[in-house]
Amino acid sequence: MKKITLMAALVIMTASAFAQQLWKIDGAHSKVRFTTKYLLISDVDGEFKKFDGKVTSSAADFSDLSATITVDVNSIVTDNDMRDGHLKSDDFFNAEKYPSMTFKSTGIKSLGNKKYMLSGLLTIRDVTKAVSIPLVYGGTVTDPWGNIKAGFKATGSINRQEYGLKWDNKAATGEAVVSDDVDFTIDLILIKDVPKK
Length: 197
Description:
The protein has helices spanning 2-17, 81-88; strands spanning 21-25, 31-38, 42-48, 51-57, 66-72, 76-77, 100-112, 115-124, 127-142, 148-159, 178-192. By secondary structure, it is mainly β.
């Protein structure tokens, strides 16, 4: 009987050690930002103020990380109300019809030194494409209030035309007013979800 009890305890401990841990996004300390070229001579920066999602991992180094992120398109801010309105229109995101962008991971590969390549499906408007996103794990700490937090930075670039953001106004020079290439940076702080007792 003691052997059976001991065996059961070992099984439970092993299962707990490899259980998927849920992490939630710390919205107050995370950012989803982007940069593109205006007239090919200057950068235009913006960000999305509202986003949510979850991350799960059973490994302490997040080497089996799985993530789902949703971004509220209507929360776009570029410090210019007219430009923000244009970006929400059908020339770009069509926020009324497609109010959110989503990313759902499909795999992750370790590159060493806390660097990963995160694969997944990115959906903007009604277009979904496979993407690979460089991801850097910054580490895990406990904040002054006892919350366990982990930090990540994701960077990459997409071609807006491929996702149906097709506005193609030309300047007098014949050059595009807005570049097709859009660079993004996502700084994520995750909070370990600890069930309440």
